Amino acid sequence: MDKIEVYATQIGSMIIEFGPKLILTLITLWLGLRVIKWLVKLIEKNLAKSSIEPTLLKFVLNIVSWGLKILLFISAASMIGIETTSFVAILGAAGLAVGLALQGALANFAGGVLLIIFKPYKVGDLIDTQSETGRVMEVQIFTTVLLNADHETIIIPNGAVVGGNIKNYSKEGKVRHNLAMGISYDSNIKQAREVLMSAMLEHPLVLKDPSPAVIVAELGDSSVNLVVRPWCDPKDYWQVQADIMEAGKEALDAANITIPFPQMDVHMNKVQ
Asked: What pTM was computed for the model?
């Protein structure tokens, strides 16, 4: 009976000592969670006005929410007498270990954030990056998804994209091709230019402004090398490239302008 009284006395003392702290801690947690929820909604409302990307918005809100909740629970633990110094140290060490283990993933994440903020390209743009050309289908937080001319899905890590060159064909709303075509040295350059210009101007997808052009690029070993330059909408890039190559060949053939094969003239001197 004495032991029961001792236990009851100890429990009563603990309730008297820790009861108010526990109640205060629970109230703090309840109020803190409500305040955090209100703050997250306020931040979401303000960031939405700045036209921030939905992917980045969701991530920022999650980081803010979990960061504030961790601070709240650490504060609550200290209120009831739990030593939090070692807990914070362990949390920091764990964060460092995870950061080192996920170094590549973090680089891709940082790249994704930069792409979403600075927007060197957007969904629907035709870009060239990491030796791949395609239309942007998705800009995710870790990767960029492209669709190339063969309808192959290409997934490129954002860290590599940010660290390399990006060529955006859609940025200015129009793009120019530089298509090489050779004619023989016996052919009339002016006639060839007129024939190729006519082929481009007749194509419905070739823009009239800026005007297409045909220039002499070089005097090659076997041919006079021309560059055919049609402008088009980026969405028609591959279609115009294929069509003008075909139309140019047919137009030159119809005008009896020769496209020579590579050849070499060999001169033999008779030895006396």
From this structure: 0.61
